[in-house]
Amino acid sequence: MLPEQFVINWNLRFPLDRWWRTKHKVAFNSEEHRRTNQIDIMYEFLEEKLYNQAIELDVMNKKKLEEYEKGKWIKDQPVNSKQEEELFNKLAANFKLS
């Protein structure tokens, strides 16, 4: 097997391995790389993914709370001309316009 094909096959078989090596600046097939367990890499990836999701959720919740406190949740509803005319007619029916 050609070395290029070995590297391609390795990365296809262990897709998180490249992520881990890039994150930790570990060369492919180095001693440290060979000592690494793929299960540990998977758990590290999962931990980072869950942590990032928790941070994103926290940021999103803070943004929603800020928008709520500023009253941004009250938005003008778009009204077309037919709806506007019906609304005017309903209002006019309650008042005598002379």
List the helices and strands and how they pair.
Blueprint: H1 3-13, H2 15-24, H3 31-35, H4 38-70, H5 81-94
Tell me what you see in this structure.
The protein has helices spanning 3-13, 15-24, 31-35, 38-70, 81-94. With 98 residues, it is mainly alpha-helical. The chain has one domain (3-94). The chain has five helices and no strands.
The average pLDDT is 88
Helix content: over 70%
Total domain modules: 1
Structural class: mainly alpha
Give the overall silhouette: elongated
Low-pLDDT windows of residues: none
How is the biggest beta sheet arranged?
Answer: none
Assembly status: single chain
N-end to C-end Cα span? 95 Å
Q: Helix segment count?
A: 5
| Strand fraction | under 5%
The whole-angstrom Rg is: 30 Å
Q: How many beta strands in the DSSP annotation?
A: 0
Instruction: Write the H/E string, N to C.
Output: HHHHH
